[in-house]
């Protein structure tokens, strides 16, 4: 797969630009977002930036590749990088419950914070309510940016079924918590006293009674208490989500869509590119991971398969010819009665002279069977000659050179067919979005598990070298 030079994504200027403060790596699940984010963070740090990488990946691969035992909600400095340019690399993993707790503790006094933190509905919400992870990721991003301790933040977005969840989930959660249903549920608590009772008597007694039966009266009360406390603490979830959303639209932010050269992943990437444009998000380009290559692209799949079939046909003919020759050989098929007579003669197998002739003297001298010590009629001599003749045929279970070559040609044909599929998929994406700059990374033989591997990925991203890695000498 080759790229038009005008559409190649050059990442070094993006990472070196002091105006770039946030890089968001987004895309569907399983396309290498975590590895891409870590590799970009390492490259930027070794080029002099002070970087923090925020991951939401629960597999904890980022910590392992950076040589850290574990990551938590506090940025940890990564050791072992080349800091000669004055850069630093820190990494952290989002703890969404802890982040939610920090928001409460930062915006509420001790008594109100205790009420919220001990509220059963809050505990369920902060532990895994739909959209909470994405909401807290944006909250943590806002916190890191506000501290102004790092000049570059690289974000690995949450793994999800859809790449759009990172943008949509915070708004959905904010809209739910600030929505009409929650407002109606909390209205009695806000109005209080007789006004609240009158409000309920007008139209809400039936609804709250039904909800109380479905959800439980205590849960309904927990929701009312929680939302009322949170609203008076810092003004509502939607407001905070909107504030962080605007941070993502700021000029110092750059979105990188990460994908693999597969139909579903690139379809999702195309949809996300369109969505980013519609939301006025600063889009930098596409990172295409796991691109396959070959050092023999001049040999097409069709030619390789045809050559393999020819080799199979030739090998079959050779085997058939060898079998016919063996059947025609006088040593295999008895002809003219001579061999059969010798083999079946009682003199050959039963006489003492024959027995003596089959055994050499202890001192290594030849037996008395003949003047030259040979016994052409003995079974031992016949079997030895047959074994010599059969060395021309491949041993049982072994393949001929032609068979091995045909197998390799078929493997090459499969690789070329894969390359062709990837190229067609990428061409469809390019036809839809010719303006998108692309950086390609080769499909590596194994997982990246250390800084050296991340450094190699960063080099390939920056140089846009999709070729396979060179073997170690």
UniProtKB/TrEMBL annotation:
<dbReference type="Pfam" id="PF02374">
    <property type="entry name" value="ArsA_ATPase"/>
</dbReference>
<feature type="compositionally biased region" description="Low complexity">
    <location>
        <begin position="351"/>
        <end position="361"/>
    </location>
</feature>
<keyword id="KW-0547">Nucleotide-binding</keyword>
<protein>
    <submittedName>
        <fullName>Arsenite efflux ATP-binding protein ArsA</fullName>
    </submittedName>
</protein>
<dbReference type="InterPro" id="IPR025723">
    <property type="entry name" value="ArsA/GET3_ATPase-like"/>
</dbReference>
<feature type="domain" description="ArsA/GET3 Anion-transporting ATPase-like">
    <location>
        <begin position="20"/>
        <end position="291"/>
    </location>
</feature>
<dbReference type="InterPro" id="IPR027417">
    <property type="entry name" value="P-loop_NTPase"/>
</dbReference>
<feature type="compositionally biased region" description="Basic and acidic residues">
    <location>
        <begin position="387"/>
        <end position="398"/>
    </location>
</feature>
<dbReference type="GO" id="GO:0005524">
    <property type="term" value="F:ATP binding"/>
</dbReference>
<dbReference type="GO" id="GO:0016887">
    <property type="term" value="F:ATP hydrolysis activity"/>
</dbReference>
<keyword id="KW-0067">ATP-binding</keyword>
<dbReference type="InterPro" id="IPR016300">
    <property type="entry name" value="ATPase_ArsA/GET3"/>
</dbReference>
<feature type="region of interest" description="Disordered">
    <location>
        <begin position="323"/>
        <end position="398"/>
    </location>
</feature>
<feature type="compositionally biased region" description="Basic and acidic residues">
    <location>
        <begin position="328"/>
        <end position="337"/>
    </location>
</feature>
């Amino acid at each position: 797969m080759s790229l038009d030079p005008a559409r190649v994504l050059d990442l070094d200027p993006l990472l070196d630009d002091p105006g770039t403060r946030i890089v968001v790596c987004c895309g569907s699940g399983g396309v290498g977002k975590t590895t891409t984010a870590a590799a970009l963070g390492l490259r930027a740090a070794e080029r002099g930036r002070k970087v923090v990488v925020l991951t939401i990946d629960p597999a904890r691969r980022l910590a392992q590749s950076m040589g850290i035992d574990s990551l938590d909600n506090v940025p940890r400095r990564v050791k072992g990088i080349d800091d000669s340019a004055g850069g630093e690399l820190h990494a952290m993993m989002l703890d969404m419950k802890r982040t939610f707790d920090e928001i409460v503790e930062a915006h509420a006094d001790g008594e109100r914070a205790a009420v919220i933190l001990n509220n059963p509905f809050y505990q369920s919400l902060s532990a895994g309510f739909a959209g909470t992870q994405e909401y807290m990721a944006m909250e943590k991003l806002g916190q890191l940016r506000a501290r102004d301790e790092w000049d570059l933040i690289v974000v690995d977005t949450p793994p999800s079924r859809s790449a759009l969840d990172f943008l949509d989930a915070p708004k959905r959660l904010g809209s739910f918590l600030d929505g009409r249903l929650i407002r109606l549920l909390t209205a009695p608590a806000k109005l209080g006293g007789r006004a609240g009772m009158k409000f309920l008597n007008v139209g809400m007694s039936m609804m709250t009674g039904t909800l109380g039966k479905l959800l439980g009266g205590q849960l309904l009360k927990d929701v009312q208490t929680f939302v009322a406390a949170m609203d008076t603490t810092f003004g509502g979830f939607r407001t905070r989500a909107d504030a962080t959303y605007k941070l993502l639209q700021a000029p110092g932010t750059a979105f990188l869509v990460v994908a693999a050269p597969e139909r579903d992943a690139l379809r999702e990437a195309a949809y996300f590119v369109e969505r980013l444009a519609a939301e006025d998000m600063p889009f930098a380009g596409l990172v295409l991971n796991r691109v396959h290559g070959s050092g023999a692209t001049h040999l097409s799949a069709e030619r390789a398969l045809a050559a393999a079939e020819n080799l199979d046909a030739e090998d079959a003919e050779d085997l058939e010819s060898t079998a016919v020759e063996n059947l025609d050989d006088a040593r295999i098929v008895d002809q003219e009665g001579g061999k059969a007579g010798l083999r079946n003669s009682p003199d050959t197998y039963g006489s003492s002279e024959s027995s003596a002739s089959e055994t050499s003297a202890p001192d290594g001298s030849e037996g008395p069977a003949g003047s030259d010590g040979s016994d052409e009629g003995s079974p031992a001599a016949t079997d030895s000659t047959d074994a010599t003749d059969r060395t021309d045929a491949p041993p049982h279970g072994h393949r001929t050179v032609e068979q091995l070559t045909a197998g390799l040609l078929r493997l090459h044909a499969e690789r070329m067919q894969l390359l062709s599929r990837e190229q067609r998929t990428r061409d469809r994406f390019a036809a839809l979005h010719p303006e998108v700059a692309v950086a390609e990374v080769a499909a590596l033989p194994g997982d990246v598990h250390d800084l050296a591997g991340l450094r190699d990925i960063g080099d390939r991203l920056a140089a846009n070298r999709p070729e396979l890695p060179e073997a170690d000498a």
